[in-house]
Amino acid sequence: MTLAWTSDLDTGITVIDNQHRRLMSYINQMEELRGSNDREAIGEVLNALVGYTISHFAFEESLLEEAGYHYLNAHRRVHQLFTKRVQEYQKRFRAGDDVGDDVHTLLRSWLISHIKHDDADYVSSVRIQIDNTLDEGKNQGWLKRTLARFF
Asked: Which pLDDT tens digit goes with each residue over 124-146?
């Protein structure tokens, strides 16, 4: 069953929501490939997903750091643990294991939970930073610098 974006996943931070939608797209691609024997396609999606996830996490952590989010280290740790887990699946895949179903199941549950709980906790801190940036007419500063570092 493919994932569909619902309003309860919106953080209200457009750049983050767009990145989450892209991650969801990769998960849906994994869904489409489930049960297929197309290892090349699965490997491509898995590599793209891992690469984009790492970029997203780095971008998100940069926003949290700029915003002075008090729980940045804990949030970063959650990202590190997840990244390590997904990279283990990548290694298993490269060794010939069929990890498609496992990866899909993990990603489906983890992404939704992470957005609704972990990411929801930082929204107010980041929104204040973004609002202050916009109010001061510095939109070309902080947000542009942060986006340029990762995308």
From this structure: 888 877 666 544 454 455 566 66
Q: Which two tokens stand for residue 23?
A: 């991650």
Contact yes or no for 150/55 (Cβ under 8 A)? yes
DSSP 38: -
Q: What's the gap between Cα 30 and its chain centre? A: 15
Q: What is the pTM of this model?
A: 0.81
Measuring CA to CA, which residue among 100, 82, 123 is closest to residue 38?
A: 100
Residue 1 to residue 147: CA distance in whole angstroms: 32
CA distance 76 to 61: 7
Residue ranges and CATH numbers for the domains of the chain are 13-150 (1.20.120.50)
The H-assigned helical ranges of 13-98 are 14-33, 39-67, 72-94
- Burial of 27 by CB count in 10 Å (0-12 exposed, 13-18 middle, 19+ buried)? buried
